[in-house]
Amino acid sequence: MNGDTQRLRARLKQRRAVLEQQFVTSASQTIAERFWQLSFAKRANRIAVYLPVRGEIDCQPIMEIAWMRKKSVFVPVLQKNRVIFAPLTPSSELIPNRLNILEPVYSTGSLVKPQELDIVVVPLVAFDSSLNRIGMGAGFYDRSFAFSKRRQHWRHPRLVGAAYSFQHVDRLQPATWDVPLHSVITEKECFGSC
Fold first, then answer.
1. What is the Cα–Cα distance from 160 to 183, expressed in whole angstroms?
2. Does residue 44 sit in helix, strand or coil?
3. Residue 85 and residue 104: Cα distance in Å, rounded?
4. Among residues 37, 85, 94, 26, which one has the least CA distance to residue 61?
5. Beta strands 102-104 and 94-96: pairing type?
């Protein structure tokens, strides 16, 4: 990872961490509305979201509509250096993982692999118009979705970034292992397959 990427990540993480809650709530609601306007979101049955940390877009509005529409909701749980997905319901018990990110209590048999999902809402720190993203730097999502780069034809899942408009940057230089997104939704617009 180069120094420019590290500086960009630090700057945007800092900006996100000091956002006022009212702005986070408003942006998250707008992004949820845009998400549910996507034709592939309406058809999806298994939707993965994430539980936010430090000012990230809150997926709660997306989850509430998914539950109302009887769709299955999943969230990432850490397994070694990857993420796999556990079911989440309104009554799920949540506990912090080793990175202090909340995860639902789950049974091993309830876990689903990334390729079994229809849509994954992906957290990010920055993205560009080519739908490259940088995350927190651990590479969990890139390792978990690396299989999608080897496919000649698209199958499941669609990767949809959720971000604030200020996280849109001119250009990111992706590494060979970076997995691009299919779409990014911000509180102002949608990029990619929208």
1. 5
2. coil
3. 10
4. 26
5. antiparallel
Name residues whose C-beta falls within 8 Å of residue 124's C-beta, 6 or more positions apart in sequence. 133, 134, 135, 161, 162, 163, 167, 181, 184
pTM of the model: 0.91
DSSP 8-state secondary structure symbol assigned to residue 189 = -
Place of tokens 């997926």: 59
The residue assigned the tokens 């079994």 is 116
3-state secondary structure of 11: helix
Structure tokens at 28: 């998250």
Q: Count Cβ neighbours within 10 Å for each residue of 129-147 and write b for 16 or more, e otherwise.
A: eebbbbbbeebbbbbbbee
The tally of CA atoms less than 13 A away on the side-chain side of residue 72 is: 12
What tens digit of pLDDT does each residue of 130-150 get? 999 998 877 788 888 888 766
pLDDT score of 149: 67
How far apart are alpha carbons 70 and 36 in whole angstroms?
A: 14
